[in-house]
Design goal:
Elements lengths: L1 H5 L4 H12 L3 H10 L9 E6 L2 E7 L4 E6 L6 H16 L3 E6 H6 L1 H13 L9
Parallel strand pairs: 3-4
Antiparallel strand pairs: 1-2, 2-3
């Protein structure tokens, strides 16, 4: 069952994730401060292995990946890679929410509201036909 959570990630991806957890960016630290409190009861993991990638944050129950992008993500080749990476992650049935570091610092409350809006979809009882 745990394998489902990692989508076939191999040992080197886990090692990379471990190193990234030790060297989180300031924006990641700020968002992690809020996410580790388990908003709406949802547990998040930081620097989580998914296939050959490492997601900044991942909630398995909500099938949610959160990515924080610094200014390097404005470069054209990085944008292309991000798009490629996101398409693969979405093929696993996951949703990717992307925010900039600038957004994280300037309005973390808004980011948390967007994340909670997504999480609330998993709290609602299914609609009757």
């Amino acid at each position: 069952m745990k394998q489902d959570m990692f989508f076939g990630a191999v040992k080197t991806v886990f090692e990379n994730a471990r190193a990234l957890r030790k060297n989180m960016t300031e924006a990641e630290k700020l968002l992690w401060f809020h996410l580790k409190k388990s908003p709406l009861g949802f547990k998040f993991r930081r620097q989580h292995p998914l296939d050959s990638f490492v997601a900044d944050f991942y909630c398995h129950k909500a099938k949610l990946v959160i990515e924080l992008d610094g200014s390097i993500h404005n470069l054209e080749d990085i944008k292309e890679y991000d798009g490629y990476r996101q398409r693969i992650i979405e093929e696993f049935g996951l949703t990717v929410l992307r925010f900039t570091n600038k957004q994280t610092f300037s309005n973390p409350k808004e980011i948390l509201e967007i994340i909670c809006e997504h999480l609330e979809k998993f709290c609602l009882p299914p609609k009757s036909p």
